[in-house]
Amino acid sequence: MLKLQIITPTKKVVEREIDSVTVPTEDGEITILPRHANLFTLLSEGIITMRDSKEEEYMAIGGGYLETDGKQAQILVSRAFKQQEIDAKLTQKALEEARQILKVTADKTQRTEAVSIMRRSLVNLKLLKKRKRSATI
Asked: Where are the domains of the chain?
């Protein structure tokens, strides 16, 4: 088992024993298993998959870092939300507003913020489409 901690600037979101965790990086996804080689890596905005013998659980994260020594993995991210914490209607509305801003404004600051909101909204919508899976016995 691997001891996992997911921490944001405001709280510890997850602390539990797992069999593996898959995280998004700049170069693609990587999966951390017990006894993994020491690793420190940057994480991209995306979806984390946590697995144990009973279930597979997902979270949307902002960018951050992962550090592991093979016994424990610590993930420090700007944000982390479980599926039940995301409001589909608000997320869809934010996505539509960001797209509208990109269509009508040339202001670099507004466009940068709109791209960030759009990226975050797309990750959240992707997470909402995933289903929590129970292990097959």
From this structure: 2-83, 84-129
Mean pLDDT of 61-90: 93
Instruction: Give the Cα separation of 110 and 108 in Å (integer).
Output: 6
- How far is it, in rounded angstroms, from Cα 81 to Cα 50? 13
Summarised one tens digit per residue, pLDDT across range 7-46 is: 999 999 999 999 999 999 999 999 999 999 999 999 999 9
pLDDT, tens digit (0-9, with 9 covering 90-100), for 94-105: 889 888 888 898
Give the separation between CA 68 and CA 37, rounded to whole angstroms: 8
Fold for 2-83, please state it. Answer: ATP Synthase; domain 1 (2.60.15)
